[in-house]
């Protein structure tokens, strides 16, 4: 079987994991150009993307990309927080290397307006800032590919010390690290040998360059990455979920239960847990009762939050604070419990909530068209037949209804001119 065929299926498979182990055995001694060429031509032809920060060492990987195939897609996370010199460097390398397919990824303007309107989230919560500006834009981009290429190297951090050329990520994609065995000296020698333009800030003492607010000059003798998130217990932006689990906790394939925008994705939110702190918790669905008990602390909390509404809760009690939440989870504890539909209509029609509204609980195939009519736009689904129906787009349509939604629908068997205006 050809390598490309062996890795064409993106589903959890022990043989696939063994195949990645075999790849590392086969290509362990191969140079960086050879690793990338094998990945692009034999392992994942036409199904591979490059992710580059266009930082201090990025010219090395991008030079290798240009040798293998300058038309390979190169994704650059334009976070809105880069040094002006980095944006200039993007254009310099594109021209110098002849890269023909550099794609800038921008954070969602709505997320920025909601969670970082003053541009200072990095000061209080750098993890959430990275999530909004890097992880969220990158996830749907790399989801199109069976694998992606990074410029990570073993020497950079202790956690990367056992980095292989090929990784199988938790969502069963292949991550390729052509420079895994490069040392700092190898990087600098490669740049000199190939006459690669330096990042304009490198000579000023910036040895590892990310977003401007979180990058500082590195002193002589310091670790090159010492200037990233200086003074914080933070080493990674969060886009790398490594096989060793130390850089960031991997989201297991089984956790990809959130169906949104036409696909199952990793869920950034989690349920409220005992011991959580209202002032510092993040990406958590807070029960209505808990929110009301600690309202001031939650409102002062700078991190993204969600709200959990269960049957019996009154949305009216939190109406004035709905704008605080990025997501509202509406609970459907049983197939026969329809109170969640009324809750959703209140959120959408009365209070004009425009964020994510997700259905949680007993979410089954027959309910989803009705939930969508009410305004639910995301679904947490564990029921396998329902998952398959969503993937296949095989949900029944609701063409006849007796209870209207919104102001334009007219229920069957009624006289529209007798309906009272809302």
TrEMBL record:
Chain sites annotated for binding [4Fe-4S] cluster: 129-130, 211, 214
One Pfam assignment: PAPS_reduct
Entry keyword set: Cytoplasm, Iron, Iron-sulfur, Metal-binding, Oxidoreductase
Record-annotated active site: 237
BP-aspect Gene Ontology terms: hydrogen sulfide biosynthetic process; sulfate assimilation, phosphoadenylyl sulfate reduction by phosphoadenylyl-sulfate reductase (thioredoxin)
Cofactor mode of binding and number, as noted: Binds 1 [4Fe-4S] cluster per subunit.
Main location: cytoplasm
The keyword Protease is assigned to this record: no
InterPro entries: PAPS/APS_Rdtase (IPR004511), PAPS_reduct_dom (IPR002500), Rossmann-like_a/b/a_fold (IPR014729), UCP030820 (IPR008318)
Cofactor: [4Fe-4S] cluster
Pathway where this protein functions: Sulfur metabolism; hydrogen sulfide biosynthesis; sulfite from sulfate
GO MF annotation terms: 4 iron, 4 sulfur cluster binding; adenylyl-sulfate reductase (thioredoxin) activity; metal ion binding; phosphoadenylyl-sulfate reductase (thioredoxin) activity
UniProt EC number: 1.8.4.10
Compartments, record wording: Cytoplasm
Keyword Oxidoreductase: yes
Cellular component GO terms held in the UniProt record: cytoplasm
Reaction(s) catalysed (UniProt annotation): [thioredoxin]-disulfide + sulfite + AMP + 2 H(+) = adenosine 5'-phosphosulfate + [thioredoxin]-dithiol
Described purpose of this protein according to its UniProt entry: Catalyzes the formation of sulfite from adenosine 5'-phosphosulfate (APS) using thioredoxin as an electron donor.
Family affiliation: Belongs to the PAPS reductase family. CysH subfamily.
Entry protein name: Adenosine 5'-phosphosulfate reductase
Organism: Paradevosia tibetensis
